[in-house]
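I hope you will forgive my troubling you with a question about protein structure. I am sending you one protein, given as its amino acid sequence and as whole-number tokens for its backbone shapes. Thank you for your consideration; the sequence and its tokens are set out here:
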Amino acid sequence: MPFLLTPGPLTTSQSVKLSMLADWGSRDIEFRHLVANIRRQLLTIAGAGEEYECVLMQGSGTFSVEAALGSFCPTGRKKKTLVVINGAYGQRAAKILNHLKRPHLTLEFDEEKPVDAAKLEQALKDNEDIEIVFVVHCETTTGVMNPLADICKVCKDHGKKIYVDAMSSFGAIPINMEEDGIDILVSSANKCIEGVPGFGYVLCRRDLLEASQGKAHSVSLDLYEQWQAMEKTAQFRFTPPTHVLVAFAQALREHTQEGGVKARGKRYQRNCNTLLKGMRKMGFETLLDDEDAGPIIQTFLSPADGNFNFDKFYEALRHHGFAIYPGKLTKRDSFRIGTIGKLDIDVFDRLLKAIALVLKDMNVSSNAPQK
């Protein structure tokens, strides 16, 4: 199978894969201890103090995003949620709230630029009925990193709750929920902790969980009831993804052994630097300025050369052992290459050689984009 150069699912270590070879009973004491340890470790990584809780939720990361939106966002007419959007995942949150018929507003920015905290502040001044602000930390539509500390400060200055979708940043980009005043944070197993897909997690203030009783729109996505079950029995209410959780426990051990968030982020940054240097040497241009892009995923503008065809490019690279990502932009042709997962600069050196070979075979003479 190829190296997965995506924002998740991603390439995992051999030991994470091997950890899934044994079968576990979901009611076994060893498994319940494992679940409790995962919850504690995630809170520690997040810099969350005694007033925070961690709730694990089956499904993809979007299941956890929706669970938190349904459990914490206002339901009546007097208060609203503000969804800050500069990519597909902010749009998805707004779509969920619309489907749930929860009152909300959107504040939209160009997908090629980070969120402007000053404009967010003006929106909060203009709409005093906003209760909670939703923002994506790393918007993998493009790879743009939004200025989380600035956004949190604006929200706290105006007495608003802040809900952070840290799906693709948690575990590699420093986040301190207590210091930044983050009320709710969501991520999933198959991102920077380097586990496999199957569950997500919601880290949030305990008082918000307590106040959410009876508020959820769904039985299976009810965070309060899920939390209560985990507190009382250390079990999921419904069948948990046992193998995925065991793999995640192993991934957490390896995250610690590597040196935690700081070391993981440094490795991803080395991968990113190697990729950018090599691609630019071949004449590719990035969508984002370096100061706006994080080390998670890079968006490259497609060559204008008539011989370039992304589908052929993708399949040829996969034949060489690399799976990249198509672009998700609404305005410009592009493709994306992720730099997270159990990968190092050797993998990216090999990738760059494969890209050069594939482009030569395609008779692409210039990698410059359409102007």
In short: The chain has two domains: 14-256, 260-361.
